[in-house]
Design goal:
Two copies of one chain form a homodimer.
Chain A lengths: L21 H14 L2 H11 L6 E2 H4 L7 H13 L3 E6 L2 E6 L1 H11 L14
Antiparallel strand pairs in A: 1-3, 2-3
């Protein structure tokens, strides 16, 4: 809480509208770091686009030339970052997107309305 | 170019609308990785919100308890990722945001309007 430009309304301090303070940057960096790996990006996109909003780990692992423990490790990092959630049902674990987290990142990366309008950016 | 879901119109394959293929994931991951550090996030936000759209390196360094070479290294990683651009004028280097890159990341993280929202999510 270094209070540099803390005029957000409790939601989404824009990355592009005012300098982040140290606390905000320290909170956000692990989220982006979790996305900074191609296997995790593919896992997240498979989970996010899964039928019914969830995907069984048994359907994720075969898509990669990686061991089950390696996939589990990447899934754990995505879960710890708050990007996905999991639920065990019987033998398998099912994963689903936490849309609030990706929404937040999208908001943070969206230019403020008073800057030159980005073509096609969602508000 | 593994061509799994390559139906984008040359712009922005949504991370959340269809599984990324390996090539897309390999291209995107370094961008997120570049953002996965609190110092780089702060640098990017300082640059993006700079008056006149640019910031002199001489104004960036004093904001951190870090050496000039360390700051330069972080700026280089942001530049290599295509998130910022730089121009030397006289003694100093000036940095500015590459808004197309952050726009692209924001688009990628924005849920498709026609997708069934995961549990409890506002559409």
């Amino acid at each position: 809480m270094l209070g540099q430009d803390d005029d957000s309304d409790g939601c989404c301090p824009g990355l592009l509208s005012a300098p982040l303070d140290e606390a905000q940057a320290a909170e956000l960096a692990p989220l982006f770091k979790a996305l900074g790996d191609p296997v995790r990006l593919r896992l997240l996109s498979m989970i996010a686009s899964g039928q019914g909003g969830e995907v069984c780990v048994c359907d994720l692992t075969p898509a990669f030339d990686l061991s089950q423990p390696t996939i589990s490790h990447h899934l754990k990092l995505l879960r710890q970052a708050g990007l996905i959630d999991s639920e065990r049902r019987g033998t398998w674990v099912y994963y689903r997107l936490v849309p609030e987290t990706t929404d937040r990142l999208a908001d943070i990366l969206t230019r403020p309305a008073d800057s030159p309008a980005p073509a096609g950016a969602a508000s």
